[in-house]
Amino acid sequence: MIFDILTLLPEVCKAYLKASILGRAQKAGHIQVRLTNIRDFAFDRHRTVDDAPYGGGNGMVMKVEPLVAALESLPGKPRPRIVLMAPQGRPFSQQMAAELAGLERLVIICGRYEGIDERVRKLAVDQEISLGDFVLSGGELPALAVVDAVSRLIPGVLGGECSAAADSFSDGILEHPHYTRPPEFRGLTVPEVLTSGNHAAIERWRRKESLRRTLRKRPELLNTAPLSAEDHKLLAEIRGEMD
Fold first, then answer.
1. 114 is catalytic
2. Which member of 148, 161, 167, 171 is catalytic?
3. Tens of pLDDT along 40-74?
4. Active-site entry in 152, 206, 209, 231
5. 87 a catalytic residue
6. Which CATH superfamily does the domain covering 184-242 fall into?
7. Mind listing the pLDDT tens digit for each residue in 162-173?
């Protein structure tokens, strides 16, 4: 899959994209991430990419010409999905990440200043995505979050697809607790079942703890998660233990 990130601050993105899973995935050819500096498509010698808003007001607005020129410079076909990171967009979710992971190409526009000229939306943007009801200085951090979440769902990126399948939200509920060595630390011990070697008991414990964690922290998720008959039995046990 190819990701194109359009940004005024490519240096902000480079370090994260080179590190860890994303860096290895690019080296292995599972994904390609290309950074395009919008400022390279400014039309004047000062490389101006923003201007005062029509009608007055605070702040500056990203100009339409450099953004559209940057989009039109991107190589390759077919036409990619073009998304804009914006607070007013559709909230990002694991379900959306799975949807985007099925694409061949994804272009992500990172806004700055007070926002972008509205004509960019009308001419090019297919979808707006938000990380939540808060405002950041720009779209770079949200864009990296989208690339990371989507890439994890592409075969080969994690080295074993079971890793992604066990993540929180992958099946609608939160992930179970994790433990590693040492077996005891400052009086806190690893649950005995995890060292028992009984794989069926371990899987049951993990599922039950996932449900327990979801019930305590995000109970609303249980209203839409695809729960099995066994899950409902485990939830009944958990509620009984909490009474």
1. yes
2. 167
3. 999 888 999 999 999 998 999 999 999 999 999 99
4. 152
5. yes
6. tRNA(m1g37)methyltransferase, domain 2 (1.10.1270.20)
7. 466 556 666 889
Q: Which of 39, 65, 99, 114 is catalytic?
A: 114
**C-alpha to C-alpha distance for 103 and 188, rounded to whole angstroms:** 45
| Catalytic residue of the set 24, 39, 87, 204 | 87
Give CATH superfamily name and number for 2-161: SPOUT methyltransferase, trefoil knot domain (3.40.1280.10)
Whether residue 160 is predicted with pLDDT greater than 80 in this model: the reply is no
167 included as an active-site residue: yes
